[in-house]
Amino acid sequence: MDVYNTIRNNIIQGKYQPGMRLTEENLAQELSLSRTPIREAINQLKSEGLIVPLKRGVSVRDFSKEDIRQIYDLRTLLEGYSAAQAALHRTEEDLLKIRSAYNLYEDAIDTYVKNDFSHIIKIVEMNQQFHEAIINASKNEHIHFHISKVVVVPIVFRSFYWYSEEKLRRSLDYHKIILEAIINQDTERARIAMHEHIFQGRDQVLLHFHELKTMKE
Amino acid sequence: MDVYNTIRNNIIQGKYQPGMRLTEENLAQELSLSRTPIREAINQLKSEGLIVPLKRGVSVRDFSKEDIRQIYDLRTLLEGYSAAQAALHRTEEDLLKIRSAYNLYEDAIDTYVKNDFSHIIKIVEMNQQFHEAIINASKNEHIHFHISKVVVVPIVFRSFYWYSEEKLRRSLDYHKIILEAIINQDTERARIAMHEHIFQGRDQVLLHFHELKTMKE
DNA sequence: TCTTATATCTTTGTATACAATAAATCAACA
DNA sequence: TGTTGATTTATTGTATACAAAGATATAAGA
Question: Locate the HTH gntR-type domain: which residues (chains A, B) (predicted)?
Answer without folding.
Answer: 1-63
